[in-house]
Amino acid sequence: LQRKAHTSFPNNTQGPSHTTTMSAATTTQPEVSNKHVLPSSSGELDLPVRLLLGPGPSNIHPRVNLKLSAPMVGYFDPSFFKVMDETCELIRYLFQTDNEFAIPVSGAGSAAMEMCLANLIEPEDVVLVFISGFFSERIHDMALRYGAKVKRIEIPWGQYFTLEQFKEAIESHKPSLVCFVHGETSTGVRQSPAGVAEICRQNNALLMVDTVASLGGVPFFVDAWGVDACYTGGQKCLSGPPGISPLTFSPRAMNKIKNRKTPVANWYLDANMLASYWCPAPNTPRKYHHTSPANLLYALREALIMLQTEGIQNVWNRHQTAATTLYQSLGDLGLKLLVPESQGQGGRLPSLTSVMVPEGVNPVEVQKYLMANYGIEVAGGLGQLAGKIWRVGLMGHNAREYNVKLLKTALGEALAAQGFKK
Hints:
Blueprint: E1 2-5, E2 18-21, E3 51-52, H1 62-67, H2 78-95, E4 101-106, H3 109-120, E5 126-131, H4 134-145, E6 149-154, H5 163-173, E7 177-181, E8 183-184, E9 189-191, H6 196-202, E10 206-210, E11 229-231, E12 244-249, H7 251-258, H8 271-278, H9 294-310, H10 312-332, E13 346-348, E14 352-356, H11 363-374, E15 376-377, E16 379-380, E17 389-393, H12 401-417
Parallel strand pairs: 3-15, 5-6, 5-7, 7-10, 10-11
Antiparallel strand pairs: 1-2, 4-12, 8-9, 9-13, 11-12, 14-17, 16-17
Helix pairs in contact: 2-9, 9-10, 10-12, 11-12
């Protein structure tokens, strides 16, 4: 093809004219490749039904699942604003807080963790991380990436810190931010924040607590315990979908964020920008930030509605009852627990129990037996505890005594298949 190329020049001056020759190959669409198409036999998505008794996710409640297919609306539709506002109010109920900033983060629990650190850390800030498992190590790693001077206080996995250890470390290091995990998914340890906030305030530090594996299944009071930054995941004790994570900042935390000397290093998780969309000042129009995962939001709202309907204290009691039944059942089978009875500043996490693997038993084979014969998923250990424990979760909708009875039967058979005797 030959085309005359005409170019206009200002002041009526005539620029040079020329003829451009284009081959047919440059105007022909490339051939479509079918290299990566699925075979026609793939058909509909067909997943097995499992009873998820591991460290998360838990089984999504059927009512919550239905909301994932609710109609899509625009992000500035008044009906969507209503869903946003109701979800934020339910998140305040979940956290037991009056904080204005209480929103669902568009991302997994690790995104909520990163949002806390990205907003509360400026370069060279001293950050104190109490490390007792896999996820407190993750906090440490993230804090380093945001330029903090990170101080680590570490104890063996499966143990918890005393109030005296908190006090000594905070007074010694004078951090701007103190971080620990309330319910450590890798160990099944519950670490109480009671009394820690007072020490933080006396030393001008903010307190951040990870409750991904515990919130909704274990008593937790953000305001009464003085927690400044707290987050959880939707897929554990709430029996909601993964990928959306409630988070709250106290007025103290928001004051630090609003008065930063440097911009928040993570645009997507900038609390100042997100606040203008989720919780703007009165009579202030919302400002778009990013596309919210609307259907995940619908599902989270439904999960929180169910929590409200049952009553949060009743939900906590149900988790504790199921856990107590599990402890007795495991004892009946001759199995021991990693974490001792709850006392003082910590102890067992009702929503997740770490079970010691008996000598001579192959933990992976037991897990395979449960899956193959009962469709039950439990998890093995991580890090220091790999091959040494099973992690059994009773979270959200799954925290029921009948699930414990089924697991006891299945686990007894799996152990017997390997010749284990009480």
